[in-house]
Amino acid sequence: MWRETLILTKRSLLVTLRNPFSFIPNLIISVFFLLVYTSGLSGISSLPQFGGVDYLNFILPVSIVSGAVGGAGGAGQALVKDIESGYFARLLLTPVSRTAIVLGPMLAGMLQLFVQTLLIFGMGFLLGLSIPAGIGGFFLTIVLALGFGLAFAGYSVGVALKTRNAQAAQAGTLLFFPLIFLSTTFVPKELIEAEWLKIAATLNPTTYIMEGMRAVLLRETIDWSVYTQGVIVAAVLSIAMVVFAALNARGALKK
Question: Which of 92, 218, 232, 245 is the most core-located residue (most Cβ within 10 A)?
């Protein structure tokens, strides 16, 4: 099964590379967030609630998470194209593992996010990004980004298999964008005045992903308890979305 998964992952990556416009706009939006928010809001990091951290480090996770929503979400749209072109039906006539058929585009979406995260980091370094915790903070952020990317790719593939429609799959992906802003996106939770927004941020899983990244990006000493919470949320989401995709794959295979 793993060899088949590797082959299908490679194919999905090649399909993505042949159509760079499927991921370049999303990358531009993520970099745009980084540039605009850093330039326009960096002054608020002088507030005592920020504890003297660099606002560029604070806002970087927002760009990475928004990249996950747009980039890894492309996995589902690529799968819909395979369904509409008939490739998916022909693939089902082969002895290829059904699990590999689901995992292939998910892993491709996760790897796409990996490259995208490296590019966002590269832009951050050009803007003067410095990670107090060193190379360890960099790699721990990548690990969390990959976990969230796998979860979101699973969601995207699940929606694609459920709807078998490119527009519906894209709309399902866009539903996640509000979650980015119902969180500690721009300021720490202590500075959020609206109680309903504090409750939304507490319930929002992306809060724990972004706070987990900040736990390794903001200070020299890593806050392992906050980072672990982020890892647990990413792991639970990944497992849940893989199951979601697998259940919808069964339905798609019966049609």
Answer: 245
User: Would you tell me how many other CB atoms lie within 10 Å of the CB of residue 228?
Assistant: 13
Per-residue pLDDT averaged across 64-81, rounded?
72
Look at residues 26, 143, 144 and name the one whose alpha carbon lies nearest to residue 75. 26
| Percentage helix, strand, coil for the chain under 3-state DSSP, each rounded to 5 | 80, 0, 20
CB 55 within 8 A of CB 124: no
The position carrying tokens 């399909």 is 15
Quickly count: other Cβ atoms within 10 Å of residue 18's Cβ: 8
64: Cβ contacts below 8 Å, ≥ 6 apart: 30, 117, 120, 141, 145, 213
How buried is 138 (Cβ within 10 angstroms: 0-12 exposed, 13-18 middle, 19+ buried)? middle
More confidently predicted of 242 and 123: 123
CA torsion angle 164 25 218 206 (round to 10): -20
Q: What is the DSSP letter of 176?
A: T
Tokens matching residue 89: 């039906």
Cβ atoms 220, 132 nearer than 8 A: yes
Instruction: Give the pLDDT band of residue 236 (cuts 50, 70, 90).
Output: very high
Give the amino acid at 39.
Answer: S
Q: What's the CA gap between 153 and 142, in Å, rounded? A: 16
Residue type present at position 27: L
Q: Is 117 exposed, middle or buried (0-12, 13-18, 19+ CB in 10 A)?
A: buried
pLDDT, tens only, 175-214: 677 778 888 888 888 888 888 988 998 999 999 999 999 9
Q: How far apart are the first and last CA of the chain?
A: 23
Higher pLDDT, 173 or 244: 244
